[in-house]
Structures are given as structure tokens and as C-alpha cells.
Design goal:
The complex is a heterodimer of chains A (481) and B (466). By secondary structure, chain A is α+β, with helices and mostly antiparallel strands. Helix content of chain A is 37%, strand content 37%. Chain A folds into 4 domains: 98 residues, no CATH class; 116 residues, 2-Layer Sandwich (Double Stranded RNA Binding Domain), CATH 3.30.160.110; 111 residues, no CATH class; 106 residues, no CATH class. In chain B, the strands form 4 sheets. Chain B has a 3-stranded antiparallel sheet with strand order 1-2-7. Chain B has a two-stranded antiparallel sheet with strand order 3-4. Chain B has a two-stranded antiparallel sheet with strand order 5-6. The chains are: A alpha+beta (481), B mainly alpha (466).
Chain lengths: 481, 466
């Protein structure tokens, strides 16, 4: 076997519908497998271990079955499908293109004989027949043209020739979608960015834990949540600013379903919550020595000293949103505000004496009684954080163009039919003149059949009235004599 | 022989059924009216839904009567009842839309409301436009199950979580409903084609049996140690499923029900075994036994349904994952319930075919017509599927920043799309007509059903809303 015949064989195999269908069946089976076996990045590792034995898991991992949709062989398979679609389209395109670019305007004898939709009318002369057909075609929504021959005319008309190309539009759109998907798989990325109010960052945390540094920074000015009356969240929002070289170049309030887009990178609102950090803690202080003295109000924020009087100052050393006490130590249990505790340090400038004041008074560690002031909590405000999803999808335009194109293509494939009609005056063997009218359509033959029936009836009616007037004029001539 | 039976039908029987159904409807409406007068509010959603249920039931009874006896006048009254039910259903949907401020697609309850509505519309369209009169025999019972299921589900207007507040959601779900309804229609038409195409009744016997086996195999995935059946716990106050932790449902085990389901699975498998044996031994007597087995399996299935209704309705059972007893309810197991009802229903349809095949063949359009209408329905379904997937991708992209993440629902939607694409290619380029095309259409709908029910019930996934 020579190289060229091998190449030809390969090409024929690739471009055959059978190959395409077999490939698609394999894709379907593998995709189904991918939905039945738990997939890696989505499922946590410990859950995977719970679901499968270590042995099975090792085999799945080795075969790539735990991440089917990103395995090299799945991507290769999709590429092969693309190649097959391209090959099949190229193989069939020239024929369709010839059909499209050079309309078949004059049906020859054998075509006329075998066309399934056709009708013949006997006519007096060519012109009468052609005019009747012309009128009928017009009435059916066609614009017939006269095809000139050496000694006579024939008629040709067509509609929606583009329909012949529709399948290729659909195939091209599918390839465009694949292209976009491949571009995104190669160059796209996804990550998260958590910002507290007032914070600015340009480092996005990727899935694998690495950081990606953006050429600009994002600052969250304010973030919030609105609730329905029953307490379920209604809306999360964040006021974001894009900062480049120290200047705000863009601003947007984003909500779920409405991202901020800058430089092709999109920022989505994905979650919202309170951080463990205190924005402000409002307290009242009373002197321990003099319980009836006036209450003093003070507002603390993390790491800042607050002077109560000339000598004493207080500082919020630590805030634990959810605390437990075990063996004389205070531990953090979670970051939700469930059982909060504030650790204040009261210092005297003169003596340098420090007292650990705890709210609430935790026996094991608190020195509340010794402190010169007693505190009562009034209000607490935590910093909010907004959870942003960040994604970069350079192939998006191809995907959406492909989707729109596919919509258009499918509309043409299913709902627009290419129909053609011809009318040719023909002389029979014994010299009698007939008008041959034929029609062809590439899909939806029933509807076209009815339409053709209408055209035929219309022609018949015209010809009949023509002969009637003819006969009447003959009669008039005869009676005139 | 079947023809003779029709002629034996005395004409009076025809009007008897109509009068009985009419009286039934009138009686139920009157009773409902008494209740309404007490509560004072005539046109609220639950009343309208109740009226719809009454009318659909009447229509279902008449359609079934038509399917069994072939008396033409039933259809007229049946479609009249369907119209009345549809009007009430439309009222209920409009009321819900107005109350909630968004189209009724957000919860399972609302989706069922829309689904039943679509089903009723399709029934009338198929009947008036395409002359497929028996279709109500299939669709009306489904609609009735839908409305009954709605009574069990949480129906108060719940606010939408942020991710669902998008017009694209409505576009996506509407398209999905339309596409799936069109697929269902193509399936029904393909089945009718096979009947008209003189496919042997044995084949239907085998398929019916396989279908019910699939249902009980699905249910038996919940088989627990010592013959229990695990169902989801139900919080009656919240009217919601119980969760062990975020995304993990709390399963409670109803003792011994698993054994019963296993038994029923064996019985419904019997016709298929008979079919295989008959094929192997070329012995038609076995087919007769298989037909008997279908009859027996219906009785056993009704028993299983009854026991399930009794045990799963408001009982408290232990769980393997947590201490203590937890309540469950029918509403917590909509898939098991629809599976049980669906199995009985399909077996009944088989008996209908077995006994009245000649009448059915007389009533249905010609096989060529059915073949063509099936193809046309898929020509409508396929673009709708495409748009549904595209709208879903666009919505996901706006909400989560990724248009395709290969979650099971997405993947199976893509598989559905590929199967129908395969059908179209085979039909257009290879000229597949008739049986092969009909089998393909049936396969397509099987995949649709798996995408809709199987993925939610059996596979792990993130498509949590539906």
C-alpha cells in the first residue's frame, strides 16, 4: 500500500459519517462514566477515599477516570471529533457549494423525466404558457427569471438558497464552540479573591493554592447583604473599584448575576460573610473604685489604644468570635459569631501595670476585679468580607459567537427549505406543445407539495380561461360571418 | 376478536360513563364549593388547583374509557373536561405568578404547576391539530399524579436565593420544559408508530418489563442492611427535606420495605424472563404466561404502592447516620412515588395494548404519518434543547463565572443533545426511517428521563435547584 492510498483511506475513514457516529458514541460513554464516578477537583479527597477503596481509587486515578473531562484522552477525543466534523464537511462541501453557487436553471430531459414533483399542461403557444406560469409563480411568492435558449425561453425561480449552506453553518458553529473551549482550557483560569471592606488586593488565589498577580488591584469599599423578612438572603452586593497605578480606573456595584469586567477578567459576587475581625467595639467604662461615677463611652478597634483618663489606656488585644475554655486556656472554636469573647488590656502609664480584662469574665484568665475600670459591651461591628470569584476566559467570544451562529444555523436547517420551480415548453414527438412545470425542495416535502398543487391549479385555471376567451373570439368570428 | 368486543358494547354503556363522570365532577365541585363558602375566598390558588384536579380526573377517566372501549363521544367530553381543567390550572399558575412576582419555575412545586399546564396544552394540541385522540389516556394520568404530588409539596411563596434571581433562569427553565415536553411527545408518537408498524406485542411485553425492572432497580439503590429501604427524612414544620449537613440529606430506613421492593422487582422481571425463554425455545405458550405475569405484577405493584403509602406517610424511623427517630413523608420521596405509580401505569398501558390492539390500530393515524410527525416533533425539540443548554450556559457564566463545568446535569444534557443529533444525522444522511428511527427516538427520550430524574436522584451533583 503506498503512502498516498493510505492517506486517502485515512481521509475517507475520518470523513465518513460512520466514524463520526462511532466517535460520538465513545464521547457519550466516557462522559457518562465521568458523571457516575466522583470527579476530583469538585469532590474533596477524603470523600473520594470514603467512596472507593484505595485500590480502586489508584486504578481510577491512573486511568484518569477521576477527572475525565480534563484527561488528555478526553480532550484528544474531542479534537478527533472536531477533525472528523471538518473532514466530513470538506468532503461534502464542494458538492453543496456547486449546488449553491451555480443554480440548476434549465432542467434537461432526464431530470424532467425523473423529478417526482411535476405536471404537464397542454398549451396553444409558448408565450401563453410561460405567462400563465410566471403569474402563478409570482402568486406563490417566487420571482421567476426567463432563461434564454437559442429559440425559446424557459422559467426558473428559487427561494432560500442559503438553506443549502445551513448544515455547514451549524458545523462551523460547533467548531467555534470547541475552539473557545480549548482556548479557555489552555489559557483560561479561575480563582477566588476575598476582600474585607476597605481592603485592596491584586493577588488571586488559584484552585491549587498558588497566587496569581493581576496587573491591577481590586478594592472593596463596602459590601453588604439584604435579607427577606424571613431572614434568607435576598441580595449580596459589593462596591468594587479597580485601582491601577494608585488611581481608580473603574467602579461598579456588583451583585450575584452581575459581575465586574476589567481587562477581560471578570469578578463575580459569590459569597459574603463576616470576618473574625472587629471593625469597632463600643463599650461603657465605669471606675472600679467609684461605682456611682459617670459612665464613659468608648469605641475600640483592633490594635489601637484608647485613653480613658490621663493615666489609663485600654486596647483591644484579641477578639474571639466563638470561644471555649479548656484547662485554663481560651481557644477559638470557629469563626462564626456564636460565643464571642473580647480580651482587653488595661494599662497604667505611670506604674506600667497591666490587667487582662475579659468580656465576658472568664474565670481562669480574667483579672477583671483588679482593673481600675469595669467595662460593659454595648455594640459590636465586625468587618465584612466579600467572596469574589475571578475568572479569565479568553475563548468566551468564540463560544458565544458559536452559540448564536448555531441558533441561526439550526433555524435554517429545520425551518427554511430551499425550493426551486421550473417551467419549460416542450414539443412532443408528434409535435404537440406542452408546458412542463416541475418543483424540487430539500426538506419538508409535504408543505411544498401542497404549494406546488396550488401553483398547478392556478396555471390550469389561467390556461382554461385563456382557451375560453379564445373559443369565444372564434365563436364571435364565426357568428360575424 | 377485539373488533367483536367493540360491537358487543351496548350503546348505553357509553353514556353511562359520561353521566357517571359528570356526576362525579359535579359532586366533587359541590363539596368543594361548600368548603369555599365557609372559608370565604373563592378564587385562590389551592381552590383553582383542586378544581383542575377534579376536571383532569374526569378527563382522565373519559380518555381511559375511550382507550378501552373506543367510543368516540367520550373524547368530546374528555377534551371539554381538559379545557375546564386547563382554565383552572391557568388561573392557579397566574395567581402564583402574581403572588410571587416571578414566573412559576423556582421550586419543585412551581415547576410541577407549569409542567402539568404544558401537558394539558399539548394534549389538546395533539388531539385537535394532529388527531391523536388516545394521547389523553397517557397524559391525563400523569397530570393527575402531578397535581396530587403538588398537594404534598411546600407551596408557600418562597423568596429566591440570589443565584436564581435572573431572567435567564426563566428562559432556561421554560426552554427545558418545552424541549422535554416535545421529547415526550416524540416518544409517545414513536411508540404509536411501532404499534401501527405491526411490531409484535411480545416486544412491548419485553420493554414494559424492562422499564419496570429499571424503576425497581432504581428504588433498590436505596436498599439498606436487613431489608430496609432508605428514604429522605422530612421536616413537617419546615416542609422541607432534612439535612445531615450542608448538601447531605438525612436518610431514614423504613424496615422490611426493601424486601418487599426486592420481591416486586423479581415479579416485574418475570415477564422479561418469559420473553427470553420464549425466544430461546420458540415456545409461544411462555408468552401467554408472560402476559399473565404482567397482570400479576400490577397487583403486586399496587400492593407495593399501598404499603409504601402507608409506611412512608408520616412515620418515624431510625437512621443509620444519626441517633434517634426521624419523621418522613411522601413528599420527601417524590421520585420513588412517581416511579411506583409510573410502573403500574406502564403495565396498565401494556394490558390496554394487549387487549385492544386492533381498536388502537384503527384509531391511530397511519404509520407513515406517525413516522413523519415523530420526526417533525424532534425537529422542534432539538433546537429547543440547543437553546436550553445555551441559556443555561449563559446563566451559569453570569452567576458562577463558567459556562461549562461538566457537572452531571450539564453532561447529561449534552449527551441528550448528542443522541438527538445522532438521530437527525442518521435520518437525513442515511435515510433512517420507520422502526430504526422510532427506536432512536425512544432511546432519546430514555436519556431525557435519566437527565431529568436519574441525575437528580442517583448521581452526585451541584445542580441543586432542579
Amino acid at each position: 500500500m503506498t503512502l498516498s492510498t493510505l492517506g486517502k483511506k485515512l481521509w475517507l475513514t475520518l470523513s465518513s459519517i460512520k466514524t463520526g457516529v462511532v466517535l460520538l458514541i465513545i464521547v457519550v460513554i466516557l462522559a457518562a462514566v465521568g458523571t457516575i464516578i466522583l470527579q476530583r477537583p469538585v469532590t474533596e479527597p477524603d470523600e473520594m477515599q470514603r467512596a472507593y477503596s484505595a485500590h480502586a481509587l489508584r486504578i481510577f486515578d491512573a486511568l484518569g477516570l477521576t477527572d475525565v473531562f480534563h484527561a488528555w484522552w478526553f480532550v484528544a477525543l474531542l479534537l478527533l471529533v472536531s477533525v472528523s466534523i471538518v473532514a466530513a464537511s470538506i468532503e461534502r462541501f464542494p458538492n453543496a457549494w456547486r449546488f449553491f453557487s451555480r443554480p440548476y436553471k434549465y432542467p434537461d430531459d432526464s431530470f424532467r423525466r425523473f423529478l417526482p414533483i411535476q405536471k404537464e399542461f397542454s398549451i396553444q403557444d409558448e408565450e401563453t404558457g410561460l405567462v400563465a406560469a410566471e403569474r402563478a409563480f409570482h402568486l406563490a411568492g417566487y420571482k421567476p427569471e426567463r432563461v434564454v435558449h437559442e429559440s425559446h425561453f424557459s422559467l426558473f425561480a428559487e427561494r432560500n438558497r442559503i438553506s443549502e449552506m445551513a448544515v455547514y453553518i451549524v458545523h462551523a458553529s460547533l467548531l467555534l464552540i470547541f475552539l473557545g473551549g480549548i482556548m479557555d482550557a489552555l489559557w483560561g483560569w479561575r480563582g477566588t479573591l476575598n476582600l474585607t471592606e476597605g481592603e485592596m488586593s491584586n493577588a488571586v488565589e488559584m484552585r491549587d493554592g498558588t497566587k496569581k498577580v493581576l496587573p491591577f488591584a481590586i478594592r472593596c469599599d463596602r459590601a453588604g447583604q439584604e435579607n427577606y423578612a424571613d431572614g434568607t438572603p435576598k441580595k449580596w452586593w459589593s462596591n468594587l473599584a479597580v485601582v491601577k497605578d494608585g488611581q481608580d480606573v473603574d467602579r461598579k456595584e456588583i451583585v450575584v448575576n452581575d459581575p465586574l469586567v476589567h481587562g477581560g477578567i471578570r469578578f463575580y459576587q459569590s459569597s459574603f460573610g463576616t470576618t473574625g475581625r472587629v471593625e469597632k467595639l463600643v463599650l461603657t467604662a465605669t471606675a472600679t473604685a467609684n461605682a456611682s461615677s459617670e459612665k464613659q463611652s468608648l469605641t475600640l478597634s483592633e490594635g489601637k489604644d484608647f485613653a480613658i483618663d490621663a493615666d489609663t489606656y485600654v486596647r483591644l488585644a484579641e477578639f474571639i468570635p466563638d470561644h471555649v475554655v479548656r484547662d485554663g486556656e481560651v481557644y477559638t472554636r470557629s469563626s462564626r459569631i456564636e460565643n464571642p469573647a473580647a480580651h482587653l488590656v488595661v494599662t497604667s502609664r505611670k506604674t506600667g501595670a497591666q490587667f487582662n480584662y475579659w468580656l465576658p469574665a472568664i474565670e481562669e484568665v480574667a483579672q477583671n476585679a483588679k482593673s481600675p475600670y469595669q467595662f460593659e459591651a454595648q455594640d459590636l461591628k465586625m468587618f465584612h468580607f466579600t467572596g469574589l470569584q475571578v475568572s479569565f476566559e479568553p475563548g468566551q467570544w468564540a463560544v458565544w459567537t458559536g452559540v448564536v451562529l448555531m441558533g441561526i444555523g439550526l433555524a435554517f436547517v429545520f425551518y427554511v427549505a430551499h425550493s426551486r420551480v421550473w417551467a419549460v415548453p416542450v414539443y412532443g414527438v408528434s409535435g404537440e406543445l406542452t408546458l412542463w412545470v416541475g418543483g424540487a425542495v430539500n426538506r419538508n416535502r409535504d408543505a411544498f407539495g401542497e404549494k406546488f398543487q396550488d401553483i398547478a391549479e392556478n396555471i390550469q385555471a389561467q390556461l382554461k380561461s385563456e382557451t375560453d376567451t379564445d373559443r369565444n373570439s372564434h365563436i364571435a368570428l364565426i357568428s360575424g360571418h | 376478536m377485539a373488533r367483536e368486543r367493540v360491537e358487543q358494547q351496548p350503546a348505553a354503556t357509553g353514556s353511562t360513563l359520561i353521566v357517571m363522570v359528570g356526576l362525579g365532577i359535579a359532586f366533587l365541585l359541590f363539596m368543594a364549593f361548600l368548603n369555599v363558602v365557609k372559608s370565604g375566598n373563592l378564587l385562590n390558588e389551592s381552590n383553582l388547583l383542586y378544581a383542575a384536579l377534579i376536571f383532569y380526573s374526569g378527563a382522565g377517566a373519559l380518555y381511559l374509557g375511550f382507550g378501552v372501549t373506543g367510543v368516540e363521544s367520550y373524547v368530546k367530553f374528555a377534551s371539554f373536561a381538559t379545557w375546564a381543567g386547563l382554565i383552572a390550572n391557568t388561573g392557579a399558575a397566574a395567581h402564583r405568578w402574581y403572588e410571587a412576582g416571578h414566573p412559576p419555575f423556582a421550586s419543585v412545586y412551581e415547576m410541577l404547576l407549569s409542567f402539568v399546564w404544558t401537558l394539558a396544552v399539548l394534549t389538546l394540541v395533539a388531539e385537535k391539530k394532529f388527531g391523536v385522540k388516545v394521547i389523553g389516556t397517557v397524559t391525563m394520568p400523569v397530570a393527575i399524579v402531578g397535581v396530587v404530588l403538588m398537594q404534598l409539596l411546600r407551596s408557600d411563596v418562597r423568596p429566591l436565593v440570589p443565584a436564581l434571581q435572573s431572567t435567564w433562569l426563566h428562559v432556561h427553565v421554560t426552554l427545558a420544559m418545552l424541549a422535554y415536553a416535545a421529547c415526550a411527545l416524540s416518544f409517545a408518537l414513536a411508540m404509536m408508530f411501532l404499534i401501527q408498524d405491526k411490531l409484535e406485542t411480545e416486544m412491548f411485553l419485553a420493554t414494559t418489563s424492562l422499564f419496570t425492572i429499571a424503576i425497581y432497580a432504581g428504588i433498590l439503590t436505596r436498599f439498606e442492611k436487613w431489608g430496609g429501604l432508605a428514604v429522605v427524612g422530612w421536616n413537617a414544620d419546615e416542609k422541607s427535606e432534612m439535612f445531615l449537613q450542608r448538601g447531605v440529606r438525612l436518610l431514614v430506613v423504613i424496615p422490611d420495605l426493601g424486601w418487599l421492593m426486592l420481591l416486586v422487582a423479581l415479579v416485574v422481571a418475570a415477564p422479561f424472563v418469559c420473553y427470553l425463554l420464549a425466544r430461546a425455545q420458540k415456545n409461544n405458550a411462555l408468552i401467554t404466561i408472560g402476559n399473565r405475569a404482567v397482570f400479576v405484577s400490577i397487583l403486586v405493584q399496587v400492593l407495593a404502592l399501598g404499603v409504601f403509602l402507608l409506611r412512608a406517610r408520616n412515620g418515624s424511623y431510625g437512621s443509620l447516620d444519626a441517633e434517634g427517630l426521624f419523621p418522613t413523608s411522601l413528599a420527601a420521596s417524590p421520585f420513588i412515588l412517581s416511579g411506583l405509580v409510573g410502573g403500574i401505569f406502564v403495565s396498565l398501558l401494556y394490558l390496554l395494548l394487549l387487549w385492544r390492539r386492533a381498536d388502537l390500530e384503527r384509531l391511530l393515524p397511519s404509520s407513515d404519518d406517525l413516522d413523519r410527525i415523530t420526526y417533525k416533533t424532534i425537529c422542534v425539540a432539538f433546537p429547543l434543547l440547543t437553546l436550553m443548554i445555551a441559556a443555561g450556559a449563559y446563566w451559569a457564566n453570569r452567576t458562577w463565572g463558567s459556562y461549562w463545568s461538566w457537572d452531571p446535569k450539564e453532561t447529561w444534557a449534552a449527551i441528550t443533545w448528542l443522541v438527538y443529533a445522532g438521530y437527525l444525522h442518521m435520518r437525513v444522511t442515511r435515510g433512517w426511517r420507520g422502526r430504526r428511527a422510532a427506536y432512536f427516538a425512544i432511546l432519546g427520550f430514555a436519556v431525557v428521563m435519566f437527565t431529568f430524574f436519574g441525575v437528580t436522584y442517583l448521581l452526585p451533583g451541584l445542580h441543586a435547584y432542579a
